[in-house]
Every structure is written in C-alpha cells, then in structure tokens.
Amino acid sequence: MKHDKPSIGDLLRRLIDDGKSYAAAELELAKERTFAEVEAYRRAAIWAGLAAVAGMALLIGFSVALVIVLASLLGPYVGALVALLLLGALGGFFGWRAMKAWEGARE
C-alpha cells in the first residue's frame, strides 16, 4: 500500500527549495528598489551639476562686471584689488558658514 503523504525528507527538501526561491525573490526586489533609487539620485546629481556650472558662469560674469565697474570708479588696479578683496571675503564667509553647518550636522 502506497502512502499519499510525502515523507519528512521530501517536506524538508520542498521547504528548503521554497526558502531559496523566497530569498532569491527578496534579493531581486531589493536590487530593483536600489536601482530605482540610484536612478532618481543620478538624475538629481546631473541637474545639480548643471546648476553648479550655470552658477559658476554667473559668478564669473558677476566678478568681471564688478571689476569693470570698480575699475571705472577707482582705476584698473585698485578696482581689481577691491573686487578681489570683496569676493575673497564673500568666499571666506561662505566657507565659514559651511564649516559651522558641517560641525552642527555631526553633532
């Protein structure tokens, strides 16, 4: 007489196979979620890079305009020196604020 019930070994084999299939499916899902998130950040990074390039072009244009205006008022050398000092002070202030923000973020 043949038993319709599977043996303990068959049940364990099936359990292990199902566990492997489940783990593989979960890993694939995690990969897909990660790739989707990376893609979103990649697009954001591209736009941020383009914004940085445009910002640098704007800063260069502003610097040249400042030198031209100050040169017409104070002379070419003094105007360039004043513009350099103003832009250096502004850059130093931004750097100081960034350092303070960085320290605050680490706390």
Structure description:
There is one protein chain. By secondary structure, this protein is an all-alpha fold. The chain has helices at 8-74, 76-106. The protein has one domain (8-106). The longest helix has 67 residues, at 8-74. The model has no long low-confidence stretch (mean pLDDT 90).
Outline of this structure?
The chain is an all-alpha fold and 107 residues long.
Biggest sheet descriptor: none
The radius of gyration over CA amounts to: 32 Å
**Succession of helices and strands:** HH
Low-confidence stretches: none
Total strands: 0
How much of the sequence lies in strands comes to under 5%
Apparent shape: rod-shaped
Q: How many structural domains in the coordinates?
A: 1
Mean pLDDT: 90
Q: Give the helix proportion (percent range).
A: over 70%
Q: Give the number of helices.
A: 2
Amino- and carboxy-terminal Cα gap: 74 Å
Alpha-beta content class: mainly alpha
List keywords for this structure.
mainly alpha
Mind sketching the topology for me?
Blueprint: H1 8-74, H2 76-106
Helix pairs in contact: 1-2
